Amino acid sequence: MIEQDDFDINTRLHTIVRGEDEAAMVESVGLALVKLPDVLNRLKPDIMIVHGDRFDALALATSAALMNIRILHIEGGEVSGTIDDSIRHAITKLAHYHVCCTRSAEQHLISMCEDHDRILLAGCPSYDKLLSAKNKDYMSIIRMWLGDDVKCKDYIVALQHPVTTDIKHSIKMFELTLDALISFNKRTLVLFPNIDAGSKEMVRVMRKKGIEHHPNFRAVKHVPFDQFIQLVAHAGCMIGNSSCGVREVGAFGTPVINLGTRQIGRETGENVLHVRDADTQDKILQALHLQFGKQYPCSKIYGDGNAVPRILKFLKSIDLQEPLQKKFCFPPVKENISQDIDHILETLSALAVDLGGTNLRVAIVSMKGEIVKKYTQFNPKTYEERINLILQMCVEAAAEAVKLNCRILGVGISTGGRVNPQEGIVLHSTKLIQEWNSVDLRTPLSDTLHLPVWVDNDGNCAAMAERKFGQGKGLENFVTLITGTGIGGGIIHQHELIHGSSFCAAELGHLVVSLDGPDCSCGSHGCIEAYASGMALQREAKKLHDEDLLLVEGMSVPKDEAVSALHLIQAAKLGNAKAQSILRTAGTALGLGVVNILHTMNPSLVILSGVLASHYIHIVKDIIRQQALSSVQDVDVVVSDLVDPALLGAASMVLDYTTRRIH
């Protein structure tokens, strides 16, 4: 494969000693150490790139370090759970520069006292290939390796290696795996194990069970990487203990069964099911029944497809004149390790989407709640146009994020209507957003962007924004009310967002405050929204305008401009008594709703959010003083100081989960 990629090969070294046992591994390292000095003396490289955690890589790193050659180690800092950990960390201590794939790996390197100025969090280089792999003719690859009668998602890829610290158990586990696969009765591509100690015994197990001649199995020693990508991307399941299962396969959302302890320490997406004690055939068979045929959200824990440009930038920044001697950072670095050097640490960010009744907005939001860049379009009226526009805007924002040095951790979506956040589905929308019922938002975005996706109601998002970035930060119980085109809200109780049994909690705009009030968009009447929403104020403004009672001196409404709630507010400010009365009634309705909330939830704070909040705050406080029980009259009611609560709340779902796992 190296020859096929047209590399200039300066030297070929044969260092692998046959035997496939512990002694052979040691002899292979020793043979490489004997042969490498001559090669390195001849080549005199400026930098030696060493990848991974194999024993042959340890020989290369040892030789380079002793010969004063700078070493760049790729994929250090990770934890798997075997002898590979010791080898990987040994190479880390020999290396001068480090390219790691995950945030946790970066933290491990720093904890190991590596100089964080010499660490690049780039992602896994293989993801650059994985996320750009779009082979439309994948069925021909599947048929070539598994037979003409195999269908997509209806076969298994099995790849299992020996565990060198417990060879006897790993051979037994491989035997149980093959028995389970035979019983499961699905076409299976079995790859031969690597050459670690114990591999010879595993091959004997394969031949003993007739795997190479079994009609349901195809046993192969090697599959070209481009073809292997397509095979795992369209498999019904992958099983074994290869790092490929917990790293690369997550990019496609393919179900994975990870057997034993070989990869138990690695970070994984939700597509991985661990069977740590794979000591019975039934246990493995049950895992196959649970996982086979599922489709999980695509994970980008190990990369976003832009690792190679980052590594090239990092390489170019290395000063070959600086002292070769390594520096170790003792004691451990302080908690805040952010650097100003853009190739060391990018800005951790989220893509936030806000689906409003009028506009569709997408923003890149940093960990601190700063909106790095925002994109706005009119919200289309049809489902097809809307979903295509969302995908287009998100793809463009994700591409721009790389240029802005922002690492996108996931996508958060705020939308009107009733939402099932567990499934990422809009169950039922408001009348403001048409063709938006029973809509799966998570799947198309996750498949397109290869990112995890969260979805929630816009009122809940506003509450989450206040909890993370606003005046609700650190509070155990508070309520947020959004005053905009409609009226929504979110409830935080004991630091948790309340969704309710049918995801209908905090529909605060539909609290009834009058039995004979105006009709509401929900089908009822007398709701807060029927009085105090932007739509309600616009309705009243039009009535006044039609009766020539809206405009006062200093006001005008151009013929091509629709009458809106803002005109009513302007008229009230200029002394229009009828406009003032309407605003007073709207504020009273909202105030009565807040009183009901105080009596029901007894929060420590009520936050009014949205464009109308500042116009209602004083009326609401008056109503609380007049109508509320004395025990809740001291509860503070404030206007939110967040500019874009829906976007910030959507971002908070991503940032909280991916960094602290609390959502």
Provide the low-confidence segments as ranges. 336-344
Strand ordering within the main sheet? 7-6-5-8-9-10
Query: What is the oligomer described by this structure?
Result: single chain
Please tally the β strands and state the result: 23
Which geometry do the CA atoms define?
elongated
Helix content: 25-40%
Strand content: 15-25%
User: What's the overall average pLDDT, rounded?
Assistant: 89
Number of helices: 21
Summarize the entry for a quick read.
Residues 5-316 form the UDP-N-acetylglucosamine 2-epimerase domain. The protein has 21 helices and 23 strands.
Q: Mind explaining what this structure looks like?
A:
- Pathway: Amino-sugar metabolism; N-acetylneuraminate biosynthesis.
- Zn(2+) binds at residues 510, 520, 522, 527.
- With 663 residues, the chain is of the alpha/beta class.
- Helices cover 39% and strands 17% of the residues.
- The strands form five sheets. It has a six-stranded parallel β-sheet, with helices on one face. It has a five-stranded mixed β-sheet with strand order 13-12-11-14-18, with helices on both faces.
- Helix 7 (167-184) links the parallel strand 5 (155-159) and strand 6.
- The longest helix is centred in the last third of the chain and has 25 residues, at 577-601.
Keywords:
single chain, 663 residues, alpha/beta, five-stranded mixed sheet, 23 strands, 17% strand, metal-binding, kinase
